[in-house]
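Model it.
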Amino acid sequence: MTPNTVSNDKSPIAGIHPALAQALAAKGYTALTPVQLAMTNEDHGDADLLVSAQTGSGKTVAFGIAIAPTLLGDGEGFAAAAAPLGLVIAPTRELAVQVQRELDWLYAAADVRIATCVGGMDMRNERRALDRGAHIVVGTPGRLRDHITRGALDLSAIRAVVLDEADEMLDLGFRDDLEFILGAAPEERRTLLFSATVRRGIAELARTVQTNAVRIETTGSSEQHADIDYQLMLVRRDEREHAIINTLLDTDSAGALVFCHTREAVRHLTARLANRGFAVVSLSGEMAQSERSNALQSMRDGRSHVCVATDVAARGIDLPNLDLVIHADVPSNPETLLHRSGRTGRAGRKGVCVLIVPENRRGAARRVLALAKLTATVRAAPGIADIEARNRRRIIDAAASAAEPEGAEAAFVAELLAQAGPERITAAFLRQQLAAHPVPEELSPLPAEMLEDKASGRVRRAADKHAPVREPRSTDMQDGVWFTISLGRKQRADPKFLLPMICNAGGVTRRDVGAIRIDDTETRFEIAADKAADYAAQLRKPGSVEKGIRITPAGEMREKPRQAKPKFKQDGKPSRKHQAPSADRGKAPKHKSRKPKRPA
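Modeled.
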């Protein structure tokens, strides 16, 4: 048996406690990741460990393996739960809950009892769990400190402490809390500190809380995120969101994570993607714990396929089948870039990371990539022809891979063919498939020199430049019905973003839309006569249009001309003269100096 192979029987392998070896085999582990393999080194003994490993490398299982001999000794399982023996500190609620889930199955054969102490949850339930006893406690710094201060958490029996993603905890300002918590634990404890990078702050923290720590680095900086394909996508300044939509449409990803800098940006982009027909959820620091848990569960069970998040909310989350990360905003530093991107390409799985870069920010994006020692392929955003071609392939593949009709299906298929015919059935299937995918956005082509990859000298052009030209929408529509949308020049209305909005609102295609005429405060557009009635009915359904925008048949939005204010009120009395604000009342008005009049 090779050193990094997990046994399929109950015999232990070097460096892994027998109870954990059984759990790993039952979970289907056939090999360990580099950081997990490093934890099996028996030479470490009970030494403190300072470990740097890339995000997504299986660190939870790694420190679970490392602390098992310290917690269990030679026993096959834990004794009755009392004061905790192990403590794991994580920067966020989501990561703490995720760690608890991993340790639950990893230590299941050892009859472990794990308690969680995280912000946003009911402290009374946590206190009752601690009173019943726990072998391992997993929590966030602030909540752990609260329980220690109130006497609910006793750390006197602690044998091992793990600081997971310590660099993130320092970034979030938890250093004082960490030192307080570790000060309440025995000095002879074992301390394991895990961090993506060991910069100055981490090194100082290690010297404070550890003793003669063994330094372990499982991944060199040049090897970071080797399983992630980085793409730098250049777009025009006003087409960033269009590029995000098209990137999501031009992928077979089962799950995508889109990062924004601010909560407001998350809210805006989530609303826009939902309006376009994407199954989308959001994560931000202002959300309640229940909302964040529901959003993550929606991604895990496949009800949602896109998650829009801020950095703080997405720290440490691990979503299955997440193979696409999009940076809607250019990361401000290499640590942010690596953290965001590390949500995909985890534990040997392949992933794609796309940086959406406005033309005026490409220098900043290249600097961040260089500082992170990463290389990215420069490319243009996928165009309409790219996405339509991909959709055609999907439809053909879906039809070709369908199984032959069986049993009752065969009789119904025969009835359908007899009554509708193959062409009409195929057309119905085609329309159903097309309606299931949001409409792509139209993007302006970028100059070829902007797409040059200076590192390799290659030029990546948008594929739709060389594809057959699609049929343009008609602008001389006969007997079209006019509608009005409450956006005009003053709101910077532009056909490029109005057209997809118009189509999605009423369930029509671009070819059903005729002329578009933009006025100062509104825009009028034509809908084909045979589609107009259904279009108007669709508009009446709630949620058909983004909040704050109205689309109605032409004429319904016209306001009455504003009448001039009368000089006198209706009671005949003159209007009250304007008075200065109260703070200015009583002050003499300032006048420019004038020369005295000459005497007559």
